[in-house]
Amino acid sequence: MLNLSKTLLATSFALALFSQASAVANVTVPHIQGKIEKGPVNPHGGVSALASPPSSTNLRLWERTDYQGGCIKCQKLQYNTCYAVDMGKSGLSGPNSLRFDQFDTRDGYSALTFYDGATCNGNWNRMSGVWKNAAIVFGNLGQWGGNLRSFKIADFFVPSEAGHLPYGDSYAKTICKKVSSSECRF
């Protein structure tokens, strides 16, 4: 588990570093692969020429790697709120790949934290960065595949790191729903 934590921390650091370096950066480290696309972001996938995208945030999770199989979509997410991920409820396995669209046009840090507990507890991994109009994609969640059970998005700086939190929130919103294959394309 310690090696996974170090790997995930290195990934978070690399993602933050690459997001500042160029418009589109591919990141590959052991066990997890990611890419950050700087916007504006098209809510249906990819970077678009929209002048001012909506101020909302979405997360899509696929049951297989490389964005294959069925997916669920978590829409209009709020900051600092715990959200449950239960793909089994939709008859899907996983998640094994994801896309995080940060449509918020504000300047400043955001952080995305994944947990293996259902109420933002247990083992966690966090990545932070300035992601104004950015899409963060992971085609392979590696050892986190199938283990992501909840997440939170912060609208302030917190270090990119990994750890363990025995107690989480008392409640997790369950807004993530299975969507059609056309909404899963990217």
UniProtKB/TrEMBL annotation:
Residues 1-23 form the signal peptide. It comes from Lobosporangium transversale. The lineage of its organism: Eukaryota, Fungi, Fungi incertae sedis, Mucoromycota, Mortierellomycotina. Keywords: Signal. This is Beta/gamma crystallin 'Greek key' domain-containing protein. It comes from the Eukaryota.
